[in-house]
Description:
Blueprint: H1 2-29, E1 36-38, H2 42-45, E2 53-55, H3 58-70
Parallel strand pairs: 1-2
Amino acid sequence: STPECVEIGLYYGWLGGVLMLVEETCRELGSNPKVWLYGGQSGWIAPRLPDAQVGADLGVLGLARVSDALG
C-alpha cells in the first residue's frame, strides 16, 4: 500500500543518510570514532551500526546539566 511504501522509503532514506554521514566522518578523521545513537529512532539504526552505543535519555541529561549550571 502507499503508506507502507512511503514509510519504507523514509526509513531507507534516513538510514542511508546516517550511514553515509558516519562513513564520511570516519574517512575524514582517518579513524573510527565512537558513535552514540539517541532519540526515538535510534533503535532503527542500531542493528546497522553494531559498534554504536545506544542511549535513551540524552535530553534528560542535558536538562540536568543546565539545571546544575543555573544553580
